[in-house]
Amino acid sequence: MSLQESEENTAPTTNLIISEHLSSKSKKIKDENEWGDRQIGFIVVGFVSILFFYTYYACVILMIPHLFLTKKTGYIIQGILTFIIYHFFFVLAYCSYLKCVFTDPGFVKKDKIMHNETETLADQRRKKQRRHSWGIGNEYGYCDKCEVPKPPRAHHCSICQRCVLRYDHHCPWVNNCVGFGNYKYFFLFVNYTSIGCLVVCILIIIRFLTLRTFQTFVEDGLSAIDVQILVAGFLTFAFAIATGSLAGLHCKLLSSNSTTSEDHYKGNNPYDFGCKRNMTELWGSNRIQWLFPTNTNVGDGYSYPLNNEV
């Protein structure tokens, strides 16, 4: 065998080895990046948890007791009601938050995908072209990153590197995607948190407008407790704006049975049955259970009822 023929025979093998090495190295870097993102994400989750419990400390430990110390009936009743209301929203908000963090958002399972083996390349290209539209009912799309058929309303998360059922968005504050599996928990989290923050802000205003006078501020200045309460008030107000704006947005999306990723779609939404029916289609007919962070999802997320009148 000549030297030239030997080089020609070994070239494909060499190229294959190099390709496999680069692919392996790329996968390793990708896995390391994902691991790093997850670790940073858990730091954010810890930070949010600290915010929760710092506002709890400011409200329950620092402020509510002062209402009882006034020994005035009106303030005592207000303190009891505030204690009950605040704990109701705090427990529901934080439980919803933890459920959203640790619940599978609905990662697409390949063994559940109805894959059409006779699908042509032209069919795949056609499905790619309508990835940012309502599509045709419950017809499957195609994910060119996962290279598999994609269930209706599912989208590929560039951070998690997986397709998610009824994908809404990837939320860094919960270190997770928000999708079919945990959307209810996210919705309850932002709504209950915004209401809880509002309760704290009102309590802070009442404290400084009724329990302290301008003269006492001039004579005594701000105490250490006052400073802690003001810091908590600032953080709570910022948290209230952030979660309140999200709560408003997702109330709008829920009323039309759409998601953040679908909000820009043009045309009629084939999944919209009206606000009340939309909530029933998502979370079941028991309205009491809508209020609590329990799993009441209807269906499996791979197909959805269609409004044929649209």
Task: Report on this structure.
The chain starts with a helix and ends in a 20-residue tail after the last helix. Mean pLDDT is 80; it is low at 10-33. Helix 1 (3-69) packs antiparallel against helix 2, helix 1 (3-69) runs parallel beside helix 4 (183-211) and helix 4 runs antiparallel to helix 6 (224-255). The strands form three sheets. A two-stranded antiparallel ribbon has the order 1-2. It has a two-stranded antiparallel ribbon with strand order 3-4. The protein is 60% helix and 6% strand. It is elongated. Strand 3 (155-157) and strand 4 form a beta hairpin. With 310 residues, the chain is mainly alpha-helical. The chain folds into two domains: 34-104 and 181-290; 111-164, no CATH class. It has helices at residues 3-69, 73-102, 121-129, 183-211, 214-220, 224-255, 275-283, 287-290, and strands at residues 141-143, 148-150, 155-157, 162-164, 169-171, 176-178. The longest helix is centred in the first third of the chain and has 67 residues, at 3-69. The relative contact order is 0.11.
Short synopsis of the structure:
This protein is mainly α and 310 residues long. The chain folds into 2 domains: 34-104 and 181-290; 111-164, no CATH class.
